[in-house]
Amino acid sequence: MSKQEPDMNTNKSEQEPIVILEHVCKNFGGFKALTDVNLTVHEGKKIVVCGPSGSGKSTMIRCINRLEEHDSGRIVVAGKELTHELKDIDAVRCEVGMVFQSFNLFPHLKVLDNLTLALKLVRKMPKLEARETAMRYLERVHIPDQVDKYPSQLSGGQQQRVAIARALCMNPKIMLFDEPTSALDPEMISEVLDVMVGLAQDGMTMICVTHEMGFARSIADYIVFMDQGEIVEINPPMEFFENPKSERTKLFLKQILTH
Amino acid sequence: MTFDFSLIFSSIPKLLSGLGLTLELLILSSFIGLVLAVFTLLMRISGRWFLMAPAVAYIYIFRGTPILVQIFVIYYGLPQFEFIRTGVLWPILREPFWCCVIALSLNAGAYVSEILRGGVLGVDKGVLEAASALGISKSQRFIYITSPIAIRLSLPAYCNDTISMTKATALASTVTLLEMTGVARTIVAQTFSPYEIFISVAIIYMVMAWMLQKGFGLLEIRMSRYLKATAG
Ligand SMILES: Nc1ncnc2c1ncn2[C@@H]1O[C@H](COP(=O)(O)OP(=O)(O)O)[C@@H](O)[C@H]1O
Ligand SMILES: [Mg+2]
Question: What is the ipTM of this complex?
Fold first, then answer.
């Protein structure tokens, strides 16, 4: 598989990248959360972002669908630059699905309505079609039988799979994952990772913040390592694990792989 | 002194004749108060100073003063102004009933808007972010996510406030209204047995409070189904 990657890369690079971050900076008060972040993601690529806690991973991916506003630099997603233009923000959000560490399902709605709400409100989809779409994606995450339950009645792993299905319903071009398995009990991690691997194999463009290094090894095209608001290195998994360039990466890998 | 039980039984039907007016005051004021509360809440959380400032001032004034004083200001105070007596609102403002409804509504509006704001602030930010990420607009988020969750969160405090309102309607008796407490006072003036009569009134208020509590309790159970982590 890794043999094919360079070819695919050259093929795709003729196309416009689907996500471009150029010199992106973001401050919280006086604190620099992101400093001169540059990242280009082509369609179909899987990017895994890792780094110590507080290094700006969440902030970076949250800038991509404008849950955070960047202070300077340029972010272009699916051909639309993120500015204060609300129309472009909505357009970008329609193309970008997001999965959060804490699931963030709508607690007052049953699983079905969690999936259909945005279809009805944003896509203006008729009720029946929305229901069919929802069922299709629930089957894809292997829990069609939970459709009439409330989120609180599901296990963490099931909730996260519902959250993935909810994002997929909108038919996004890119999926963002912010530590999707960090809040899960160990025995539930694999059921969520399996769904994500399946998604990767189907060709979805993915940017995943995760410390699941096995997952990173098997599906990532590139691993992005961040520290103190900067991207320290971007490398394919082999290179990243076997031959890390910076001292900071080495230190991080030592810490995370001894666990 | 002797305690005359038969007086309690004989006075309760008479007292209940004032119950209608008590309920009218309660229902009208609660309804108007709720509408006021929603508008005040929207102003309060609008993020625009020229909407927030009046809302905050309104809440501050009505939470900071006794309802009785507010009723007196409206009923006795306002007619001192010439323009009130000649104004279009005079037919309403000279009626003690409407003065009480105004005072109670303004009070409820101030309190309930703060109760609802507590509910709105209690909605998980992450859940709203998830909605934004799906492209759901700000107003749709408020209608479909924030409101239902906030209403559920506000329910216990709102029940409390409604019970307080029920008791506050008794203040209407100070401006000649013959609601339940007003009726009680006239009976006492005739029978000179304040103990039995006021105990009877107290019992009726307690039953009302109990019914409200039960009603809201059922509503709360119904609205909390989604919180129960039960299979099936
Ligand atoms: N809303 C915020 N306000 C202030 N500081 C924030 C906010 N969000 C994140 N930060 C800070 O920015 C830094 C990067 O945060 P984050 O992107 O969440 O890191 P990571 O996801 O890599 O753990 C942290 O030091 C965090 O405290
Ligand atoms: Mg994070």
Answer: 0.90
Could you say which of A104, A122, A167 has the minimum Cβ distance to residue B127?
A104
A98-152 pLDDT tens trace:
999 999 999 999 999 999 999 999 999 999 999 999 999 999 999 999 999 999 9
User: Which CATH number is associated with domain B20-180?
Assistant: 1.10.3720.10
To the nearest whole angstrom, how far is the Cα of B228 from the nearest Cα of chain A? 7
| Helix pair angle (A156-169, A127-140), 10° resolution | 130
**Chain A interface, mutation test: which of B125, B128, B134, most A Cβ atoms within 10 Å?**
B134
Task: Give the CA angle between residues B147, B150, B155 to the nearest 5°.
Answer: 120
- What's this model's pTM, rounded to 2 decimal places? 0.89
Phi then psi for B81, rounded to 5 degrees? Answer: -90, 130
Please, which residues bridge with residue A80 across strands?
A77
What DSSP string runs through A189-249?
HHHHHHHHHHHHHTT-EEEEE---HHHHHHH-SEEEEEETTEEEEEE-HHHHHHS--SHHH
CB atoms closer than 10 angstroms to residue A182 = 13
Question: Chain A residue with minimal CA distance to B222?
Answer: A108
SS3 content of chain A, % helix, strand, coil (to 5): 45, 25, 35
DSSP E strands, A31-173: 31-41, 46-50, 72-77, 80-81, 96-99
Ion ligand 2: residues, Cβ under 5 Å: A 58
Tokens read off for A257: 């792989």
| Max CA pair span of chain A | 55
The verdict on the CB of residue A156 being under 6 Å from ligand 1 is no
Domain locations in chain B? 20-180
Q: Is the CB of A55 under 6 A from ligand 1?
A: yes
Q: Which amino acid residue places its CA nearest to atom 27 of ligand 1?
A: A54
Rounded Cα distance between A106 and B152, Å, is: 14
Query: Is there a contact between A153 and B132 if contact means CB atoms under 8 Å apart?
Result: no
